[in-house]
């Protein structure tokens, strides 16, 4: 029987309370501190305000070799905190190899998402950037199932035509960003209208490259 974790009554309630009390205030502040930015910018971007929980339900698959649970992708906005059940199947792309992310009871997976990578580009040199990058991941289909996972997406600002990218106090002449500013509504529209594994994320905003249609 799968998903014992989620069958234990209070699990989701506990999870969302934990996120509310711990994750949102702490983990984002932590990344923000690593950026060298102050908490006012974090508040100004409303990163902590716009989070949602999502349930993924992966039925048992009789021919897992023919398909995937979720195709390769990087999450688009700030941070994802994910609780997965004991079935497993999540993999992360590391040095061109797919590496299993085994479920750890009571543990969360934290994915850096593209927007946090963009912010990070504003504050560190290229070497540091490589350490603090949004990751590509996927989920394998499994004969055993169902598998359940519950990501909490910390989305940051509500999509609008406002431009994001430069954390002004972190920019200096010797530390320019390779990315143009991002208009969040266009960025999200492109994410939603593109196949997960075709989605180029921040590549569209890399300076010198042709950007979105109509830009
Ligand atoms: O189900 C999982 O473990 C990961 C799902 C995922 O990658 C996502 O929701 O963005
Ligand atoms: Fe994801």
From TrEMBL:
Signal peptide: none annotated. SUPFAM superfamilies: Clavaminate synthase-like (SSF51197). GO terms for molecular function: dioxygenase activity; metal ion binding. Keywords: Iron, Metal-binding, Oxidoreductase. Residues 48-156 form the Fe2OG dioxygenase domain. The keyword Nucleotide-binding does not apply. PROSITE patterns: FE2OG_OXY (PS51471). Pfam families: 2OG-FeII_Oxy. Belongs to the iron/ascorbate-dependent oxidoreductase family. This is Fe2OG dioxygenase domain-containing protein.
């Amino acid at each position: 029987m799968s998903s014992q974790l989620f069958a234990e009554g209070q699990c989701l309630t506990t999870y969302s309370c934990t996120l509310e009390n711990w994750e949102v205030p702490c983990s984002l502040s932590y990344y923000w501190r690593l950026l060298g930015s102050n908490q006012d910018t974090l508040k100004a971007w409303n990163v902590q305000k716009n989070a949602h929980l999502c349930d993924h339900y992966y039925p048992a698959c009789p021919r897992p070799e023919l398909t995937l649970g979720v195709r390769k992708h990087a999450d688009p906005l700030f941070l994802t905190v994910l609780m997965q059940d004991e079935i497993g199947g999540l993999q992360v792309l590391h040095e061109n190899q797919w590496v299993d992310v085994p479920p750890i009871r009571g543990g969360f997976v934290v994915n850096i998402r593209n927007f946090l990578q963009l912010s990070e580009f504003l504050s560190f040199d290229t070497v540091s950037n490589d350490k603090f990058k949004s990751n590509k991941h996927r989920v394998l289909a499994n004969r055993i199932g169902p598998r359940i996972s519950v990501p909490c997406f910390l989305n940051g600002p509500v999509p609008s035509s406002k431009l994001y990218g430069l954390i002004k106090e972190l920019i200096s002449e010797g530390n320019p960003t390779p990315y143009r500013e991002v208009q969040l509504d266009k960025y999200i529209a492109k994410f939603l209208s593109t196949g997960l594994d075709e989605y180029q994320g921040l590549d569209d905003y890399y300076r010198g490259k042709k950007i979105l249609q109509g830009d």
